[in-house]
Amino acid sequence: MKLEHPANVYIYSTFPYMIMAALVMMTVSYQNTPGLVFLRIELTL
Questions:
Q1: 3-state SS string for the chain
Q2: The predicted structure's pLDDT at residue 34
Q3: How many domains does the chain have?
Q4: How far apart are CA 29 and CA 19, in angstroms?
């Protein structure tokens, strides 16, 4: 239990930042080439 708890806290704490990073990547990729946006969406999903 002690080994799983920090991992869950780490995942939940970094999850919002991953979403923010994904949104930034999608907006930047959309301005450059729409193809990278679909690639980012497939990687996130």
A1: CCCHHHHHHHHHHHHHHHHHHHHHHHHHHHHHCHHHHHHHHHHHC
A2: 62
A3: 1
A4: 15
What's CA 29's distance to the chain center, in Å?
Answer: 14
The residue range of the domain holding 32 is 4-44
**What is d(CA 24, CA 18) in angstroms, rounded to the nearest whole number?**
10
Reported pTM: 0.41
Give pLDDT tens digits for 1-45. Answer: 455 667 777 777 888 888 888 888 877 766 666 666 666 667 665
Instruction: State how far the Cα of 27 lies from the Cα of 2, in Å rounded to an integer.
Output: 39
